[in-house]
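To the team - NAP complex, inputs and output below.
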Amino acid sequence: MTEATQPFCSLIGGQWVAAASGRSFEIRNPADTRDLVGRFAACEAVDAQAAVAAAQAAFDGWRRTPISKRARILNDAAAHLEQHVERNAQELTREEGKLIALSRDEVLRAAQTLRFYAVEGQSWTGETFPQDDPAMTVSTQREPLGVVTVITPWNFPISIPARKIAPALITGNTVVFKPASIAPLSGLRLAEALHQAGLPPGVLNFITGSAAAVGPSITEAKAIRAITFTGSTAAGEHIHRSVPFTTRTQMELGGKNPLIVMDDADLDQAVDLAIKGGLSLTGQACTGTSRLLVMKSVKAEFTTKLLAHMAKLVIGNGMTTGVDIGPLASAQQLDSVLGHIAAGKAEATLLCGGERLAGPEHEHGHFVSPALFADVSSSMHIAREEVFGPVLALIEVDSYRDAIAQANDTPYGLAAAIATRNPRLMHDFANDIEAGTVKINRTTTGNLINAPFGGLKRSSTATFRESGRSGLEFFTQTKTVYRGC
Ligand code: NAP
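Output:
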């Protein structure tokens, strides 16, 4: 087992520094808690305030830096991530638990995101408007906002930060970045790549530390012009309510995502969608399938096939070949998921799984066997609360209309899928479902770098989308200029 002793530092004003208090916290591998992944600076308000001040001081220089230079830094940082993909992927698996192949994909996706915005940001521009006066031009120009706070969750600890930081930087903003305390090392590697690529001091500041210790200083300070946050709905709503009126917010929050299985569906494909969408990533995806709304006429056959597949899943350390499902990311996650399973057992029928795993391969990690609940109704806890673990709740429906009504019976609206061969239902589903991401014969999980991403209802603030070209909008403000001779 590795025992890293030197704490990783924060990056403030271009310097890698320890917390002012000298304190640090440790992160252990959720597949084997004997493995110390690292120690990290336990920043507090004083460190966070220094990061905000450094970002403020760097803003004017960065906004005036030629866009081609900003783009080159993003491309060089992408190359740095690609050169270190194996180390970064192994660290990601050791701190978060996901399968090593998925970690490699995620590191490369972060690099691809930096490259995407290096190009896309260079053609992000205003408009010119036709009008009557030949001696005047009227046009808009897009300008950076200033200091932007980036707060991210642990489940995609490098790709989510990349999709926020890259559009922020290319448009000329400076950044204070706080990763989740459960998995800070991947975020540090992203900050390191950008720093090594030549980002001027203070343009990106990276601080680790608990939400309670650093949160108010990086969300409520007047100098913060915008906050882009991904995490739980509770935390997102709290931040959204606490910030000054002049602070723009973008909140990407929780989900309770349905997969509707119609009676004409290819049931083998539908089972695959349920397993990949709901159980891979150990169910720890905001867009993960959580509710299975299955037509009564195919429920028995679908359930039999699903149980047969679930029985074959191998649960273990994400570094081990042949493993299908890794651990939950932390002891808190384990407690939370077991709590939801206990609540589910009290109201529905547990058909399989839901056990904390013991034995030599599992005893040092946070492993739970994937669970399937049947006899679930939409009013039950297990159908309403975001579990964020390998737990599926099966609800019987008797028509397409019934399925849509139940699918929409949730405060969330992040992602939703349908399995059907009927082109009419495919069309209707896209119109009827209340979700920001709509999938037809595809998993609820997964989204493109170049397409907009975000939720409806309580899954997002109803403001700005992330990803793609629309991801640039959040980080700029528009001026309309009337220019005479
Ligand atoms: P979380 O507990 O809300 O934490 C997310 C991040 O916010 C962490 O960095 C956390 O810091 C920080 N934070 C929490 N409260 C804060 C506050 N008052 N001020 C400043 N920072 C604060 O969420 P999580 O457990 O990491 O992630 C799981 C959740 O994220 C799920 O609900 C999932 O659905 C959601 N998620 C949504 C999307 C999406 O795109 N919609 C994507 C992925 C995940 P600490 O770690 O230090 O507490």
